[in-house]
Amino acid sequence: MAHDISTTNGKPAIAYFGDTPWHGLGTRLEEPANAELAIQAAGLDYQVELQEMTTPRGSVVPGRKAVVRSDTDDVLGVVSDSYTAIQNHECFSFLDSIVSAGELKYHTAGALGKGEKVWMLAKLPGEIRLKDSEDVTEQYLLLSNSHDGRSALRVFFTPIRVVCANTLGAAERRGHGNGVSIVHKGDIRSRAAEARDLLGLASKFYSQTSELANVLASYYPTKNELDRYFEQLYPDRDAGSSARAKNVRAQLLHLFEHGRGQQIPETRLTAWSAFNAVTEFVDHHRSCRGDSEMSRRANRLNSAWFGSGVELKAQAWAAALDMAM
């Protein structure tokens, strides 16, 4: 399934502040937004409704509902009777109390497909600075919600390396204490209390990430170790052609030596550089389907934040730590 940037009234459904991480798509904001402004600027001010499904002869389909976008009548998904819709304004206001206290700033918001997946990126104060150098990683929360029944409302931690806009994926999204998840069942508002400890969880996550990132930035792998590292992520096939895997490994080696941000003296040619070669490849170079540059970038974003790119980054993080520790 394609995950193009959704459109509202003919405009891309995305708004962003600054240049990190996915600039160039949608409406640029002059300052960080509150939830209401971000929703309006990103074209997310639509409702979803649960409607009965009928057969061609008019019989009601039992136990199933269609999730319909009210402004376009697009069917975003088919769900069970127990499903509870979470409107865009509800899921984004999930973080409003933290924003109003000045502990978080909304940064980017958008929608994919026909509007079935929405997200909001918010910046936490503080940063990770490796070895007292200019190699800085900023701290974000990424909230995502789906209207197709395929995923819960999720808020997870997303470090972004400033110098190259790489989303680091320093832990598996599913587990490892990396955020909270609320399913679309029962009274959603009563479950919102589960997010109250987000800042504490984020503080622990980023403290650990900083410590481990500095371990990577202090380890200089040999050529053999580097080859094994990339082979672990892109192994040759047991049968058939392995040309693609070899080409990808060659590209990763090039990014290790010459990629974005890889010339910083304090972290150059370290295990941190090897990990960032993978994240740059996933975020900026990995081939993605699409009939336009915007479509390809949208699919790459979807993979890097929510799809197979997340899994690859998690593997790369774990393998880099195994190599360095």
Structure characterization notes:
This protein has 325 residues and is α+β, with helices and mostly antiparallel strands. The protein has one domain. Helix content is 35%, strand content 24%. The chain contains ten helices and 14 strands. It has helices at 35-41, 88-93, 96-100, 188-191, 198-216, 223-233, 243-258, 271-285, 293-306, 308-324, and strands at 7-8, 11-12, 14-17, 27-29, 48-54, 60-69, 75-80, 105-112, 117-129, 136-146, 153-157, 160-161, 166-167, 180-182. Strands 3, 4, 8, 9, 10, 11, 12, 13 and 14 form a nine-stranded mixed β-sheet that branches. The protein has a three-stranded antiparallel β-sheet with strand order 5-6-7, with no helix packed on it. A two-stranded antiparallel sheet has the order 1-2. The radius of gyration is 21 Å and the shape is globular. It starts with 6 loop residues before the first strand and ends with a helix. 42% of the residues are buried. Mean pLDDT is 83; it is low at 172-176.
